[in-house]
Amino acid sequence: MKKEFLLFILLIACFTFSSVTSSEVWKTGVAVCDITPPAGLWLAGYAMRDHPAEGAIHPLWVKALALQDAQGKTAVIVSSDILGFTAEMSQKIKQNAKEKTGLEPGDILLNSSHTHSGPIVGDSLIAMYSCSNDPDQLNKINLYTEELIKKVSNTIVTAFNQLTPSKLYSAKGVVRFAVNRRNNKEAEIENTYDYKGPVDHSVPILVIKDVTEDKILAIVFGYACHATVLSGYQWCGDYPGFAQIELEKIYPSAKALFVAGCGADINPLPRRTVALAQQYGKELALSVARAVEDTLQELPSLLKTKFETISLPLEAPPTKELLQQIANDPQKSDYIRRSASYLVRGLEQGIPLRTSYPYPIQVWNMGGFPLVALGGEVVIDYAISIKQKVGLNAMVLGFSNDVMSYIPSVRIIREGGYEGDTSQLEYKMPAKWKEDIEPLILNTVFQLWEQIK
Predict the structure, then answer these.
(1) What does the angle CA 267 – CA 50 – CA 82 come to, to the nearest 5 degrees?
(2) Which domain holds residue 294?
(3) Whole-number mean pLDDT of the chain?
(4) Is the separation of the CB atoms in 93 and 12 below 8 Å?
(5) Hey, which residues does 306 pair with through a beta bridge?
(6) Are strands 61-68 and 74-80 parallel, antiparallel or unpaired?
(7) Are 287 and 339 in the same domain?
(8) Calpha distance 220→232 (Å, rounded)
(9) Are 322 and 231 in the same domain?
(10) Which of 230, 170, 178, 222 is CA-nearest to residue 199?
(11) Which residues pair with 79 in a beta bridge?
(12) Where are the beta strands (DSSP E) in 164-284?
């Protein structure tokens, strides 16, 4: 009788474990790849640089996290130490990955940390740099870009092929070195006691743990702040790179993936030194570690994704004559003149000026945890509006899938300035965005979330 009773208990336990496994356990896979460029390439992000990189402070990385729920739905988050993916790069990467994994484009999220100490890739902001007139440099950029596309694609496939049972958690930290750069003067920041303008100091976090040993396998964390502490001539992930290094010291079994939030109008201040980049990286890492210890919430194994491309309208483009006038104006900055010349050459080759742009929007639901990924350099207003509607715990990202220009809010379009107006030309956008773009983006996000929440 005792044997029969013990057998009965054992069967019940096995059944219970199998039920938990099928309904609650995720599968995840993580892969990393060194993407540090060879010697002789130019750094991206600043027009003032006048020669190639001189070395590296630390390596640059691409990292991929594959997530699969209990029903077999799979998606991949990619973090990268580059300024941003172009639409063409994203299309190639996602097509390569689809051929080997079957993943649809909307199930792959390509985010860049937007470090300004990474390489120029593709034709992103190419007119900004003086090397755009150097055929040898352009060839090196093209070769590196093609190699990068292969590495990112292969990293996605590797993560996909390493899926193992895991648990997924969310958490939320806070760190406060981000400052609204439109409303606070950098030169006066250390003597400022009343910071102005909107900012988001939250640190959204995803944590992956091994099912059997409960050890941390991966940490995805975000922050809405430009990666612009450094402006020198050495490869570096900036503060996000240092944060990832610190987190992997704290949790040796884990891979740390930084994803950039909507910090297009937000800077780390003060800045300009390696010591400050290291400090901010450590602050961010410790914020994540504190949240991991204090605020973990397990997420049920359910993944839903939506992806949509919408058309964002631009104001009426300038005439060819006006662009030529800008290109010839010695009072204009060199990169503005080069950008205008680029558009003039396009017109002469029969390429019309844009009046709209296909804009990517990704919305995921990971066991109730909202993730929104927007293209471009998205200003902080969008993150605030989305969190108020979708949930304050949401991970809202910019710099995802295509970095085509700044994405200002209605407020910033009306105020003008760099993010709302003058940055457009350097991104080969002939005119300002129409004010319609903010409601178009927000309404699409809200509609997609309603479909999967």
Answers:
(1) 45
(2) 26-303+359-408
(3) 93
(4) no
(5) 363
(6) antiparallel
(7) no
(8) 27
(9) no
(10) 178
(11) 63
(12) 164-174, 178-180, 202-210, 216-223, 234-235, 255-260, 266-268
Answer yes or no: is 100 within a domain: yes
For residue 208, give the amino acid letter.
I
Q: Give the pairing type, strands 164-174 and 26-34.
A: antiparallel
Question: Is 189 in contact with 270 (CB distance < 8 Å)?
Answer: yes
- Domain check: are 249 and 338 in the same one? no
Other Cβ atoms within 10 Å of 16 Cβ, number: 10
The rounded distance, in Å, linking the Cα atoms of 79 and 64 is 6
Taking alpha carbons only, the member of 122, 49, 114, 48 closest to residue 84 is 114
| In a shared domain, residues 245 and 285 | yes
207 and 334 assigned to the same domain: no
Total residue count of the chain as it appears in this document: 453
Q: What distance in Å separates the CA atoms of residue 91 and residue 402, rounded to the nearest whole number? A: 9
Give alpha helix (H) positions in 161-295: 238-250, 274-294
Question: Between the CA atoms of 117, 220, 161 and 214, what dihedral angle is there, to the nearest 10 degrees?
Answer: 140
Spatial distance between the Cα atoms of 106 and 442, rounded to a whole number of angstroms: 18
Q: Are residues 335 and 224 in the same domain?
A: no
pLDDT in tens, 168-191: 999 999 999 999 999 999 989 998
Q: Where are the alpha helices (DSSP H) in 102-237?
A: 135-160
Assess contact for 243 and 281: CB atoms under 8 A: yes
pLDDT of residue 328: 94
Q: What is the pLDDT of residue 128?
A: 87
The number of domains in the chain is: 2
Are residue 264 and residue 232 in the same domain, yes or no?
A: yes
Question: What's the token pair of residue 207?
Answer: 């944590």
Assigned token pair, 244: 């990832």
Do 249 and 282 form a contact (C-beta atoms < 8 A)? Answer: no
List of the chain residues with pLDDT < 50:
1-3, 5-22
